[in-house]
Amino acid sequence: MSMTEKEKMLAGEIYSAVDPQLINELTEVKEIIHDYNLLRPSEKQKAREILRGLLGYIADDDFLINQPFYCDYGKQIRIGKRFFANFNFTVLDEAPVTIGDDCFIGPNVSIYTACHSTNPVERNSRREWSKSVRIGDNVWIGGSVTILPGVTIGDNVTIGAGSVVVKDIPSNSIAVGNPCKVIKSI
Predict the structure, then answer these.
(1) Where are the alpha helices (DSSP H) in 44-133?
(2) Is 34 buried (19+), middle (13-18) or exposed (0-12) by CB count in 10 A?
(3) In Å, what is the CA distance from 78 to each residue of 30, 55, 98, 103, 118?
(4) I want to staple 105 with a disulfide (CB 3.0 to 4.6 A). Which of 85, 112, 164, 180 is the partner?
């Protein structure tokens, strides 16, 4: 039985990023995000309602994602208890993005799951694949950090501002740099 492009995307297989069903879903989410980002700061309850309808899982009501916030699909994003993300949080969630309890995300942080070929002919075909990102409990991601597809960040980790996380970071560590590397165990 043949899989849809969306099923391929969710399975981490190569799919067409210009599939009409996917483009329609992306457009629908952009409309929701547009409304969310235009809310007044005092409209906290409305903001929570929008995010509850958009994201795949929210562990409790003690969460805050400052505007502006951007994502591709929303439904692949799972956030744990007492989650906080500062301004300009961007999540390209073609694959699952799971964030644990008590996580703090600094401003201008980006999490990417979409992968593209380095071969320009293949890349121009608009075929891509995705790899999930997992962030453990008690993690602080500093400002302007970029987390690349397929990365797992363990529990009790601090990622220094401006880092580019290209591979897994073990629990109980402090990591910084481009590429991000563990500089201290805690």
Answers:
(1) 44-54, 120-124
(2) exposed
(3) 18, 7, 5, 12, 29
(4) 85
Can you read off the two tokens belonging to residue 163? 């880092």
Q: 């989650």: which residue's tokens? A: 83
List C-alpha distances in Å: 21 to 70, 97, 113.
20, 21, 19
Say yes or no to pLDDT of 1 above 90: no
Q: Furthest-apart CA pair in the chain: how many Å?
A: 50
> Which residues are known catalytic residues?
116
In whole angstroms, what is the distance from residue 45 CA to residue 51 CA? 10
- Cα-only R_g, the chain: 17
- The 3-state DSSP class for residue 54 equals helix
pTM of the predicted model over 0.85: yes
Look at the block and give the residue holding tokens 């099923």.
Answer: 7
pLDDT digits (tens, 9 = 90+) for 62-110: 999 999 999 999 999 999 999 999 999 999 999 999 999 999 999 999 9
CA–CA dist 158, 142 (Å, integer): 8
How much is the average pLDDT of 136-161?
98
